[in-house]
Amino acid sequence: MADLSVNIAGVTLQNPLIGASGTVGFGREYAALYPLSTLGGISCKGLTLKERPGNPPPRIAETPGGMLNSVGLQNPGVEAFLKEELPWLSAQGTVVIANIAGSCEADYCAMAERLNDTAVDMIELNISCPNVKEGGVQFGTSCESVGAITKAVRAHCRKPLIVKLSPNVSDIAEIAAAAESAGADAVSLINTLTGMRIDIRTRRPILHNNTGGLSGPAVFPVAVRMVWQVKNRVKIPVIGMGGISTWQDAVEMMLAGADAFQVGAAFFTDPYAPVKILEGLNAYLDENHIEHVRDLTGGVKPW
Amino acid sequence: MKPYDVEACKILRRTVLGADCFDVMVLAPKLAPLARPGQFANILPRGKTLRRPISICGIGKDTLRFVFQVRGEGTKELAALSVGDTMDVFGPLGNGFPLDFPNLKIRRAAFVGGGIGTPPMLAAAAAFPGEKLAVLGFRTKAAVLLEEDFRALGCKVAVTTDDGSYGVHGLVTVPLSEESFDVCYACGPAPMLKAVAALCAQRKIPCYVSLEQRMACGVGACLGCATPLRWPDGTVHYGHVCKDGPVFSAADVVFS
Question: What is the pLDDT of residues B117-147, one digit of tens each?
Fold first, then answer.
């Protein structure tokens, strides 16, 4: 049996599979099906200082090979998370990543500060949410703004800091480099691609927010390309995500350069997807006599 | 024991109801014993990313019955399955109808179904211990669903159609307002639920409604299926149809 463990910024994950923020809540719903210790880590639903109500429905639309969402960072606020969710979650035997968002730099810094002396293992800086008017992706689309927010949060954050990148940019590798030089310990990518569907009978967008974030298998090739470009540009660990739904996708993502990977929309298609991905990944490593899963990282042989 | 799970359910029976509705009975030895009236299942059409939430119409010892309408590509794919094929079923999900009232004098219940909102009312009526009234509303005669199934349960049945082609010409509130009952359960289009809830509120009768919304995870993890709800203090927040519902006390629902 191969060694599935990976080390991301000094934190050991028992395997490289992390539940993606916004798709697994705070873990309880899937813990009813299998122990959360099955997963290497869980990136919690994006948190803000105060509770957020989220966007009006409909928030979900299916697309060919994927889906759009515009949840709009509905969350109970960081204090409720610390009181109601974290004590339980931190006892489940999986790495806990707090995904944090805010509407201004001070919010992000206060969030990082608040989480310093808690059981949270890592912080994921969400500067790539396409579904909120203030904050989110506005910080994530230029090297200057990514560098500035990363640097500011870094000064307040004593946990390993992952910066989650938006694909809605012209050069994601440059953005990743800006995060790295501003002190990020790792980057994760891709967040959703901005998309839109329209009901041709009513001429209304299906999502009440008009636009939303595209995820699912449809975005996978874009994610693989971006992870590859980023891996070639930065030295810090890269967490790849975007449309991974099978073990073959996971292998591909790691070959492109991912040190670990997140699974999101696949939970909706099959709640057992992570279990199947890990079983398949393990069998693949054994069949190919690969001792450590980390030996896959960046193993692509480009033409 | 898991409260819900995924099961590959073999289709035992499949009937076409009217032009675009399908009545499917599946073998579900793992899920059926967990199911309660009012819950739903999230069913995966082949090749789709998202499952389709379908209400449970009947619960047997090891079977589940689903009656659904073809609304789009996903339900079209589900409708194309034949006897012997398997359905990828995730369930049972959500909260069912409260059917036991140990501290209240509840003798007669009204089950109100509008169109494709009718199927979950059948599971509820089957489990209700007292006297039952079913008021079922449809667009037209060809769309009438499950009338005989409700009669077979011993319900007094009133059917209404919008165009008067069958039963009472008009809305479900026409026959409903002439009946007396102690509790009401309803599923159907929002304007119907609003009218039924108003009638019950006027009579100070408990009313439970089953809602639908575009959904992804089905278990409360993704927060996709938001619906506006009222806290006791009157403030409005977004609850979620999959986990907080699909059954809500009508008094908590903000009808648009």
Answer: 999 999 999 999 899 999 999 999 999 999 9
Task: Please give the full DSSP string across chain B, using - where no structure is assigned.
Answer: --SSEEEEEEEEEEEEETTTEEEEEEE-TTTGGG--TT-EEEEE-TT-SS-EEEE--EE-SSEEEEEEE--SHHHHHHHT--TT-EEEEEEEESB------TTS---EEEEEEEGGGSHHHHHHHHH--SEEEEEEEESSGGG--SHHHHHHTT-EEEEEETTSSSSEES-THHHHTTS--SEEEEES-HHHHHHHHHHHHHHT--EEEE-----SSSSSSS--SEEEEE-TTS-EEEEETTTT-BEEEGGGB---
pLDDT of residue A63: 96
Residues of chain B with pLDDT under 70: none
Instruction: Read off the CATH number of the domain in which B55 is found.
Output: 2.40.30.10
What does DSSP say about strands A212-215 and A193-195: parallel, antiparallel, or unpaired?
antiparallel
The domain of B84 spans 5-93
Contact B225 A57 (CB under 8 A): yes
Report the candidate in A188, A186, A121 with the shortest Cα–Cα distance to residue A159. Answer: A121
Q: What gap in Å lies between CA B92 and CA B34, rounded to an integer? A: 7
Domain end call among B93, B125, B151:
B93
Please give, rounded to a whole number of angstroms, the shortest distance from the CA of B235 to a CA of chain A: 12
Of the residues B60, B93, B126, which one is the last residue of a structural domain? Answer: B93
Backbone torsions φ then ψ of B120, nearest 5 degrees: -65, -20
* β-pair type (B207-210, B131-138): unpaired
Residue A195 lies in a domain: yes
Amino acid B40 reads F
Neighbours of A221 (CB within 10 A): 12
The predicted pLDDT at position A135 comes to 62
Question: What's the confidence (pLDDT) of residue A260?
Answer: 98
Q: Do A24 and B221 lie within an 8 Å CB cutoff?
A: yes
In A21-127, where do the E strands start and end?
41-43, 60-63, 66-69, 95-100, 122-126
Q: Any idea which residue has 């969350």 for tokens?
A: A75
Are A270 and B6 in contact (CB < 8 Å)? yes
Residue A58, amino acid: P
First to last CA, chain A: 32
Tell me the residue range of the domain where A272 lies.
6-296
What pLDDT score was predicted for residue A134?
66
A-B C-beta contacts closer than 8 Å: 103
Distance from CA of A273 to the nearest CA of B (A): 11
Chain A hits for B3, Cβ within 8 Å: 32
| DSSP 8-state secondary structure symbol assigned to residue A37 | G
Into how many domains does chain B fold? 3
Mutate to test the interface with B, among A26, A45, A59, A71 (most CBs of B within 10 A): A59
CB-nearest to A269 from B44, B223, B228 is B44
Residue A77 has which token pair?
A: 């606020």
* pTM of the predicted protein model: 0.95
Residues with pLDDT less than 50, chain A: none
Residue B98 resides in a domain: no
Q: Which of B51, B88, B214 sits opposite A58 (nearest CB)?
A: B214
